[in-house]
Amino acid sequence: MHATLGIATVYRCIRRFMEEGILREIHLPDVGTRYEYVTPEHHHYFHCNLCGHLYALAGCAEMLESMLPAGFIMESHEIILRGRCNNCAKPRNITRKESGKK
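-> C-alpha cells emitted (102 positions)
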C-alpha cells in the first residue's frame, strides 16, 4: 500500500509555515505564486523566460530610494529581472526570430 499526501494537506502546511515565518510567498506576474524560505538576507530574482527557472540574486540595488520623487517613502520593493539563464542563452537555444535572421 502506498501512502498518499492530499493537496489540501500540502497547502495547510504551507499556510502554517507562512504563519510561523518559515516561508513567504513570491508573486510573479505571468508566472504565478511561488514559495521560498525566509532568510535574513534581502535579495531579488532573475526569471528565465525559456526554462522558467527562478534564480535568487544576492544583494540589493542601493540606489532605489534615490529614484523616488520628493516626499515619497518606500516601504518595500521586489525586483525581478527577466531574460535567459546561462544554459538557455547558449547559441543553440536562440531561434531565428530572436536572433533577427529571416
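DSSP finds two helices and five strands in the chain.
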